[in-house]
Specification:
about 180 residues; alpha+beta; 7 strands; elongated
Length: about 180
């Protein structure tokens, strides 16, 4: 049996076409075009479209990226700046209660945006801790990662506030 490397392309009867994004001793983590991230057993039945050979002990790009981010956060006194979209800069968020006898609440959008960015950054840290945990098995990590993806999906409404699309929340694209 040939062990597929990260970047290999496959076609699965149930999930469709996908790319191997991580390899463990028992599973492939595959991002499918139609179904998002799924794990399948290494010995599962699927068609190999393009096999990339890789060593068994390699790590994924995501793991390298998470390690680098962790090192930079630990040893750097600077943090990345996430800019708000120009049209919202200096604006106000107005919260109006359903009861007209109660007063409105105004919040500077910059303050609200900063809190959204803090939530996003804390979710990212939680995601890194899940992925690097030695106390969770692969299936538990996958299950928790799916919750994180759903959290991101719940926050996509706030993407309108971000200047750069690279800063957007991205949820499960398969649905």
């Amino acid at each position: 049996m040939q062990l597929l490397g990260i970047g290999s392309r496959i076609k699965h009867a149930e999930y469709g076409s996908g790319v191997v994004t991580n390899v463990t001793s028992k599973h492939y983590w595959v991002t499918f075009i139609e179904n998002g991230l799924e794990t399948i057993a290494i010995n599962a039945d699927f068609e190999v479209i393009e096999a990339l050979e890789d060593e068994v002990d390699t790590i994924s790009f995501s793991e390298v990226e998470n390690s680098l981010i962790s090192i930079l956060r630990k040893w750097s006194d600077t943090s990345s700046i996430t800019p708000i979209a120009d049209k919202w800069r200096g604006g106000t968020l107005l919260l109006q209660p359903g009861d007209a006898s109660l007063s409105d609440k105004e919040v500077p959008i910059d303050t609200f945006f900063h809190k959204i960015v803090m939530v996003r950054d804390r979710i990212r840290v939680m995601e890194q801790k899940i992925n690097s945990s030695k106390n969770l098995d692969d299936q538990e990590k996958i299950d928790l990662q799916q919750y994180v993806t759903r959290i991101y999906g719940s926050l996509t409404t706030f993407n309108v506030l971000f200047k750069n699309t690279s800063d957007h929340f991205i949820g499960d694209k398969s649905k």
